[in-house]
Amino acid sequence: MHFDFTTPIDRRNSNSEKWNVAPGELPMWVADMDFPVAPQIVEAIKKRLEHPVFGYNTVPEQLFQAYQAWWQRRHGYRMETQWMLFCAGVVPAISSIVRKVTSVGENVLIQAPVYNHFYASIANNGRTPLSSDLRYDGNTYSIDFQDLEQKLADPQTSLMILCNPHNPVGKVWDRDTLDQIGQLAQKHHVTVLSDEIHCDITDPGVSYVPFASVSETNRQNSITCIAPTKCFNIAGLHSSCIVVPDPVLRHKVRRAVSTDEIGEPSSFSVPATVAAFNEAEPWLEAFRQTISHNKQTVAAFLAERLPKLHLVASQATYLLWIDCGQLCDDAAPFTAFLRKQTGLFITAGNCYGAPGKTFVRVNIACPASTLLDGLNRLEDGVHQWLDRS
Predict the structure, then answer these.
(1) What structural domains does the chain harbor?
(2) How many CB atoms lie within 10 A of CB 104?
(3) What is the pLDDT of residues 64-76, one digit of tens each?
């Protein structure tokens, strides 16, 4: 089956958050694709539309079985369906879990630079974000385990939010790294909440390791958030799953979801999710190839025409992390300048924590023609930035 990843789609005037921009602007910021959804998912929604009533919905076992089959087939990890809870989204799940498994004033450990909504989920609930910053060697990122253990050992630290794979740096954590994190977390009585929403957007030939699959220690001391929404571009349907093997911890999470009323599916979230996992794997494979080609395009363009910008090595996500340290000491004014002068809208890295100050994040989940437009605008903006008097 052929899937079209080359034809641009006009998303203006469609209530798109990403495309709610001025005429002439090109948004390459929020993690939202400019590709049509897999036809298998569209057909499943059309079939549901044949029934004209859209009332309250239950969560069928079929939904959890779809998750189970996908993770066993693609990632070699069997998650029991009784471990699973439906949730309207990963971010709502994280916020509810923070409220339920930690107390006001406690630390929630993160690893900056990291997804900006982690900070909001922590701070908005009266907890304290505590970062064990990732180490950057000028090309890739790693964990400072001495610093990590010191911060996990703080009696005020009760939860760690792990980003696996990591957004925005595109790191796929290996089994040994995840094992070490799990051992340290258990040693210091810290629960691990693993956000694995980007897990299926890896480079061809690269697969991620589910945190809970590494060991019994990891499995029993973890909460995992997964979803089809990022890899199949159906975030607007609000569907995710929380996986909690430990029954005591699962009871707490179930109460969190129930208390916050975020456990009810829409009329379309269940059929779309089941179709994604059961039928749309060929689409995903074609998509991964497209993103790999786009990454190669960006790497070649920067190397040839924008040598002051350094593309950080990435194995996952369609979000590129670009080091602008040779160009500026703060990417926020630079991105504002880019948007004003060229219409290119990308994200300044400081919203992912202080270590991201000289970086930008760029979304490349778009047709090649759109990507080239963005790169040309970037080049124009860089030259204008350097030519300022």
Answers:
(1) 26-37+281-386 (3.90.1150.10), 42-279 (3.40.640.10)
(2) 9
(3) 999 999 999 999 9
